[in-house]
Amino acid sequence: MKKVLVTGSGGFVGRHLVDLLKTDYEVIGTLFGEDLKDQENVSYHEGNIQDPKFLEDLINKYSPDFIVHLAARAISWDSDTEQIFNTNFLGTINLYKAVIANRNKNPDYNPKILYVSSAEIYGKTTAPDKINEHCPFFPVNFYAVSKVAGDRLSYQLSQSEKLNILIARPFNHTGPGQQKGFFVPDMASQIVEIENDPNGQSLKVGNLESIRDLSDVRDIVRAYKMLLEAETTPGEAVNVCSGKGQKMKDVLEKLLSFAKKEIKVEEDPERFYPVDIKLAVGDNSKLKSLTGWEPQIPLDQTLEDALDYWRDKP
User: Fold this and answer.
1) Strand pairing of 42-46 and 66-69?
2) What is the biggest distance separating any 2 CA atoms in the chain, rounded to whole angstroms?
3) pLDDT for 115
4) How far is CA 199 from CA 182, 185, 193, 314, in A?
5) Who is most buried in 54, 208, 237, 281, counting CB within 10 A?
6) Cβ atoms 61, 116 nearer than 8 A
7) Which strands form 112-116's sheet, in the order they lie side by side?
8) Is residue 76's pLDDT more than 80?
9) Considering the domain 3-174+215-240 in this protein, what is its CATH number?
């Protein structure tokens, strides 16, 4: 059974990815404070990707055939710039150095690495209604800038060090397990609070006019697995997205239609971002060409599952 190292395996996307991979692979996951137990074909290892020795020891021990690099500080408007760059950029350097160190001892070692970048790197790009992999980067927050750095570092080392790195650029995705700080869980968690509140508070919202390419996290991790298994060229980038735009107002209306009571909506100035991208829809033709991937989970199911996650939360 081939081995896959998943950094950030205790996060929202990581948990879904591990669940998908464990039937076909031995999964080695890194944790950073999450309390998860080993299971069949899955072993977890607590550590910080800012610690080079942690990653070097892990890769030396297991020599994974594949690596999926998910670990990151992923809140777009996180203001702790030092931690953003220490994790998202320097942590990525540490991972690649660990692979190179292992290869220096074992010259044939060259795992396929899926670096999970972000569509946030495109920012205020050209052609926002159909963003392809060649669109220029105009990032609008520190998180996106850190991801541009990691994205381009991945390309550089695929060329200068001949690392077998594929760059995935996921657009917005959501589903059960996503925590607050993103649109769907922010809305779903509020709806559940209001359902349980006899006083009838209103739901607080920010800008509902923006249009986003929104997928189910379970479709996204299936794309990651297919990309790992596909024939790809080191250094190339692939958008992972539905290819369809969803206005946030329409997404909220769908969520509200699943609520157990009628809910009043109220604008909250604190929920508006300093810079808001009006439109960001991806072109997924390259992903489809490489893997045959198609989204399978309809938006209604994604939203209902997200609501049920918050209803079931203790």
Assistant:
1) unpaired
2) 66
3) 99
4) 26, 22, 11, 21
5) 281
6) no
7) 42-46, 26-31, 3-7, 66-69, 112-116, 164-170, 237-240
8) no
9) 3.40.50.720
Count CA within 13 A, CB hemisphere, residue 274.
Answer: 7
Residues above pLDDT 70, as percent of the chain: 100
Residues 265 and 200: beta-carbon distance below 8 Å: no
Calculate what percentage of the chain has a pLDDT beyond 90: 93
The C-alpha angle with vertex 22 and arms to 303 and 66, in degrees rounded to 5, equals: 105
State the Cα torsion 112-138-293-11 to the nearest 10°. Answer: 60
CATH of 183-212+245-278+298-312, one of 3.40.630.30, 3.40.140.10, 1.10.10.10, 3.90.25.10: 3.90.25.10
Residue 90's nearest CA partner among 33, 31, 150 is 150
Chain mean position to CA 158: 21
| AA identity, residue 173 | H
**pLDDT tens readout for residues 148-160:** 999 999 999 999 9
Rounded-to-integer distance, Cα 245 and Cα 247, Å: 7
Cα(72)–Cα(67) distance, rounded to whole angstroms? 15
Residues 34 and 15: their CA atoms lie apart, in Å, by 11
Res 79: pLDDT: 77
Residue 168 bridge partners (DSSP): 116, 238
Helix, strand or coil, per DSSP, at residue 240: strand
pLDDT value of position 4: 98
Residue-averaged pLDDT of the chain: 96
- For the chain, give every domain's residue range: 3-174+215-240, 183-212+245-278+298-312
Q: Do the Cβ atoms of 109 and 103 come closer than 8 Å?
A: yes
For the question of whether the overall pTM of this predicted structure is more than 0.85, the answer is yes
Q: Mean of the pLDDT values across residues 195-210?
A: 92
Half-sphere exposure of residue 246: CA atoms within 13 angstroms, side-chain side: 23
